[in-house]
């Protein structure tokens, strides 16, 4: 019985050691931070449409970065996903301009940094 339990522990350790390549990129980790911050933000009354649009954009930035890196950022499909992420980061920056929420300026600074990294990655 102990042998099978040890095998399960070893398998669990191997799964924890595996990381997708995109998880090691600063651009991905920064996008996740912005995404989680935006998910916690309270929008001003009457601006729920901006919350919906911003959340979709924030999710898309993270997912397209992951997809673009996983597909290979030098290939056409990978670059396309990264270009989409760049556009979505710009959209989220604009949503923050419209909403005027506390912490929005810092989030925009981070989004501009994400944009700079993505621009270099798509060249």
What would you note in describing this structure?
The structure is a single chain. The chain has 123 residues and is mainly alpha-helical. It has one domain: 23S rRNA-intervening sequence (de novo design (two linked rop proteins), Up-down Bundle). The protein is built from five helices and no strands. Helix 4 packs antiparallel against helix 5. The radius of gyration is 18 Å and the shape is globular.
Features:
mainly alpha, 5 helices, de novo design (two linked rop proteins), 123 residues
Write the SSE topology:
Layout: H1 2-17, H2 26-40, H3 48-71, H4 76-99, H5 104-121
Helix pairs in contact: 2-3, 2-5, 3-4, 4-5
CATH domain fold name? de novo design (two linked rop proteins)
Total of helices? 5
N-to-C order of helices and strands: HHHHH
Major sheet details: none
Name of the CATH class:
Mainly Alpha
- Report the C-alpha radius of gyration, rounded: 18 Å
CATH superfamily assignment?
A: 23S rRNA-intervening sequence
Task: Please tell me the overall pLDDT.
Answer: 91
Strand fraction equals under 5%
Head-to-tail CA distance between termini: 55 Å
Report the count of strand segments: 0
Instruction: Describe the global form.
Output: globular
């Amino acid at each position: 019985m102990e042998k099978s339990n040890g095998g399960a522990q070893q398998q669990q350790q191997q799964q924890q050691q595996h990381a997708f390549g995109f998880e090691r990129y600063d651009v991905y980790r920064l996008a996740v931070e912005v995404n989680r911050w935006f998910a916690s933000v309270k929008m001003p009354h009457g601006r729920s449409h901006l919350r919906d649009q911003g959340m979709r954009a924030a999710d898309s930035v993270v997912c397209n970065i992951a997809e673009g890196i996983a597909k290979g950022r030098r290939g056409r499909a990978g670059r396309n996903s990264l270009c989409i992420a760049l556009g979505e980061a710009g959209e989220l920056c604009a949503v923050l301009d419209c909403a005027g929420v506390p912490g929005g300026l810092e989030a925009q600074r981070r989004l501009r940094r994400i944009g700079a990294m993505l621009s270099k990655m798509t060249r």
